[in-house]
Specification:
Elements lengths: L2 E9 L2 H17 L3 E5 L13 E7 L2 H9 L1 H10 L3 E9 L3
Antiparallel strand pairs: 1-3, 1-4, 2-3
Length: about 100
């Protein structure tokens, strides 16, 4: 079943995070991920507000997790560490 990769991010170093974004996109695409929302307009109703919210759709939870654990994504993530505060969850889509 398809899955959503949902990230909530506060960027603290725009230059370093820009490098993360540059590398993360191709890594996500290589695992069948496609962005469906990326730093778009949002309304925070509950919880900690993060000004950058990203949703990507993957063919499965396993594909999303494989992407996260891949060498290419981990290389991208090296640029986000210390340049952002973030939460990331993968949720399976159910009918």
């Amino acid at each position: 079943m398809p899955a959503l990769w949902i990230a909530h991010v506060t960027v603290t170093d725009a230059e370093a995070y820009g490098k993360y974004a540059e590398l993360a996109g191709p890594a996500i695409a290589a695992h069948g991920g496609e962005f469906i929302a990326r730093a778009a307009r949002y309304v925070q109703l509950e919880g900690k507000e993060r000004p950058r919210n990203v949703v990507a759709r993957f063919p499965s939870v396993e594909d999303a997790v494989a992407c996260y654990n891949s060498a290419a994504y981990q290389q991208a993530l090296d640029h986000a560490r210390g340049a952002s505060e973030r939460e990331l969850v993968v949720v399976e889509i159910t009918d």
